[in-house]
Amino acid sequence: MAAAPYDHAIDLKHVAKIYRGNIQALQGIGMHVRRGEVFGLLGPNGAGKSTLVKIMMTVVRPTRAEGTILGNPVGDKSTLARVGYLPENHRFPRYLTGRQTLEFFGALAKVDRRTARRRAGELLETVGMAGWANQKVGTYSKGMMQRVGLAQALMSDPDLILLDEPTDGVDPVGRKDIRDVMSRLREQGKTVFLNSHVLTELESICDRVAILVHGQVARQGTIDELTIARQRYEVELAWQNPMVGREKVLAALPAAWSAITTTTPVSAPLRYPPPPGLPERLGLAGPAPALPMLGYPQLPDVPGRAVYRTVDRCTLPAGHWAELDGPVLRVGMTDPADVQPILDALRGAGLIVRRVQPMRVSLEDLFMEAVNGAAFGGRIVPDQRAAPGAHRGAPAEQGACP
What we know:
By secondary structure, the chain is an alpha+beta fold. The protein contains 11 helices and 17 strands.
């Protein structure tokens, strides 16, 4: 169910930024971030991520922007007192200590001196920098600077925290510490909005994500919402003879199976026995030695030739799609109860089930699909890789924002 507008910490509409030379950094995007969630924004270099954050922080003046931040219009200066911000490539005075840095930024945020001193100590402990509190910032590594930067963004106890590449230069231990801090902020009802290129990090911590490509929102939603159409179960079978195993699977699951055959470069191993007559039609006639461990036939490794691969596909009686690719059966199901009759039928046919695993498209897959297939006008064009940098020329016609 869609969140009501008053449940949005960030509710942006028609945000556009055009730089000199008709460079379309942002092309009228819409984005909604709910209160109390961790929201991740990702995209290739030059997609407009930092520009969007700077518009929200009133650092960059938008060409057009509608919507609200914490219930107030975009650009309202008074709202910034409730927002914590960690910019990318931030710098602190090198002659200040870590504690002095936090107290200084607390004063800028109009936090009283007593509270600032208390929070500085608490936050340095939270980000793992208590032991370096009295050392000068000039002695810190990049990762240590990031930790202090995160603490600085939290000094005023903000309701909304904007983090631009918060784990850049941070070691794996530090990254986990920062993720833990973000989880605690969510538990406290805070809203966290972060940019990051570390996709596994976003996938593990974010409630919802948006993928920005050439100043447009190519995808937006939870990982489950973005991948529901391709979620599936994979059932790996153990068999000695692939031809016999294939026939048992097709017999165990009565449906209108169709064999789809494709050719691939000769360097790829053959996964299936060929349909009768196909090797001759492809000019690959000759003895086919077997792979001893897998038992799959393989055509002679002749330079310039191709090998074939067959995948069997069907729609099961219940309406779910199924695909048999070698010893792996994929079925378009998300409910574990639905896959049980499939497993029973396979075992009843004398097949051994080696593995059953729910699968979904990863955030990296979604990102690469959006970047490689993103075009303008809300359309997705396969194999149209998005070049780095902002779009030049007339702005794209925007579709409806989710």
